[in-house]
Amino acid sequence: MLELRPTCEHSNKPLPPASLEARICTYECTFCASCAETVIGNVCPNCGGGFVPRPIREIPPEKR
To answer: Which domains are seen in the chain, by residue range?
Structure first.
């Protein structure tokens, strides 16, 4: 199962489960779109992989 990390690994920006700003690599390293695109050039500094938008996970009504 995908581990939804709650913040950007570079800027510590909050990235809640429904965030459209979250980017992940194949190892689930997590960055915000701004850091992924402008700071690290779409190359993960941890593993060298590229980034894709993190899938959105719906939050059940009882957990909202």
So the answer is: 1-64 (3.30.40)
